[in-house]
């Protein structure tokens, strides 16, 4: 084998990269981020990814170590083959546990990309809402705050909705990675000024956006 140190070094670095991607996927899945990496957190795929990273790291370190050792190669091989997988797997598990503990409790699930004032007698808003999550979420209501952060209007238009992964009372279900348009009738008229519309759901954060009544 030509340049064995480079080859084994590449294998070791590849193992580290794979393990880092597995941890990143676990974090992105925990915060509901839409990402290819988030799919790595599915149990079977995640374990295969972690095991692949451990194998690559172990093979790489073994190869590099055996290139430098002339004596006690067998002892080094036995110890490295035992300790590297155990320590690496323990590190990944601890890192994943810390992610679960310290990741945001109420992740952002959507953002409002556009607000259109359809009418103000009474107030009707049209909202373009884009999902930011890797799983479906629900929208239960909306608030309007004035420039002093006072609540001036609210709406909880609920109906029984059945979707692929959820059913119950809600204003709308927002599928992962989708964008929907909500038309909200607040049954009130607002004076001229600057306002903020904010979507809400129990245990989740949804988007908010400013708008102006001329």
Structure overview:
By secondary structure, the chain is α+β, with helices and mostly antiparallel strands. The chain folds into two domains: 99 residues, no CATH class; 104 residues, Immunoglobulin-like, CATH 2.60.40. Helix content is 39%, strand content 33%. The protein is built from three helices and eleven strands. The strands form four sheets. Strands 5-4-10-11 form a four-stranded antiparallel β-sheet, with no helix packed on it. It is elongated. The model has no long low-confidence stretch (mean pLDDT 83).
> What's the N-to-C terminus distance?
75 Å
Q: What is the general shape? A: elongated
Order of helices and strands: HHHEEEEEEEEEEE
> By helix and strand content, what is the structural category?
alpha+beta
Would you identify the CATH architecture of the largest domain? Answer: Sandwich
- Assembly type: single chain
Largest sheet: 4 strands, antiparallel
Q: Can you tell me the number of structural domains?
A: 2
Q: Percentage of helical residues?
A: 25-40%
Report the top-level CATH class of the largest domain: Mainly Beta
- CA radius of gyration is 26 Å
Strand content: 25-35%
At CATH level 3, the topology of the largest domain is: Immunoglobulin-like
Number of strands: 11
By CATH, the superfamily of the largest domain comes out as Immunoglobulins
Mean pLDDT: 83
Strand order of the largest sheet: 5-4-10-11
Number of helices: 3
Q: pLDDT under 50 segments (min length 5)?
A: none
